[in-house]
Amino acid sequence: METVVINITTEYERALNEAKRLINDGQVVGIPTETVYGLAANALNEDAVKKIFVAKGRPSDNPLIVHIAKFEDLEPLVKEIPEKVKIMAEKFWPAALTMIMKKSDRISNVVSGNLPTVAVRMPKSDYARAIIESCGCPLAAPSANLSGSPSPTNAKYVYNDMNGRIPLIIDGGSSEIGVESTVISFAENPPRLLRPGGVTLEEMTELIGEIVVDNAVLNKLEDGQTAASPGMKYKHYAPSADITIIKSDFETFKILCESEENITALCFDGEDKNLACPSVTYGNINDGYSQSARLFDALRELDEMGAGKVYARCPNTSGMGLAVYNRLIRAAGFKIKIL
Length: 339
Ligand code: TXA
Ligand code: MG
Prior knowledge:
It is a single chain. The chain is α/β, with parallel strands linked by helices. It folds into 2 domains: about 5-215, DHBP synthase; about 240-339, Threonylcarbamoyl-AMP synthase, C-terminal domain (Rossmann fold). It has helices spanning about 10-25, 45-55, 85-90, 110, 125-135, 155-160, 200-210, 250-260, 290-305, 320-330, and strands at about 5, 30, 40, 65, 95-100, 115-120, 140, 170, 180-185, 190-195, 210-215, 240-245, 265, 280, 310-315, 335-339. The strands form 2 sheets. An 11-stranded mixed sheet has the order 1-8-2-3-7-4-6-5-9-10-11, with helices on both faces. Helix 7 (about 200-210) links the parallel strand 10 and strand 11 (about 210-215). The chain is globular, with a radius of gyration of 20 Å.
């Protein structure tokens, strides 16, 4: 299969028309969103959704997020809309926010991975919402990487993974946020945070009160433990490099990096100039959003450099930092040293 790439910033109408034609024909299309790129198919067409799992090489018990363009699109997908979801949607949607509810009969078990629930997101990206509107159906879409690769933040990375596997990629430039959406379940009360992302725990708690943080957000699941979010149990992207997070001040970090042979540092912007070893930076020390925008690219760069042993600076875990830490600790195989 030939994979065509259309740039939606320069060929808007053609991009929307081609996406619509292929998705209405039951095909899978790579689409831009503000978090990461998605692999989209008509969420109400079971055969089309099955093709997503094939293209991605994804286990079929890992459910997909359903993307909508406006709040009215939510009602047919769920059994009922909890009051707290209405409040959250009013305040945050469109956003990097995925909310889980009990599913309606219109959502097949292929989408929900046999769970009784469905995850729904209204993306903030105008391109993403225009594509959904143009197709006229909700779009089921996981991140557009092969299972086990990092989520792609631009069309080039989607192409690297999906060339020959899907007919079309819509190029909408770099994803602004750079890590996947916040996932929170309203199928239980109090709601449970399953994955931290672009809408922070603090912002949500301020609005709706108590939120339980699922154990898998910060900790490794032990063998036999079940995950509330099936995606948490799968091995996440870890670069070939062997990463350890170092929780310390910069001076201590510098001494450690320079006292051993062949260390590569994963550090914050500007710190690289004060290190004698090779390094890759991942954003401003005080700005979780700049860190999230850089993290997956920085991990790819470590591999491109052929980095062996990597010491990483530890992000602050408040605000957007929780999402950064959640991805970094997985990339590090949960190895952390407190100095
Ligand atoms: O930002 C994002 O969320 C991107 C873009 C494309 O929208 N999508 C994304 O999808 O990251 P994916 O499939 O890579 O991650 C979805 C996560 C998985 O960990 C999955 O297990 C979880 O959400 N999930 C989906 N439906 C669920 C459900 N009904 N119950 C619990 N977890 C669910
Ligand atoms: Mg993913």
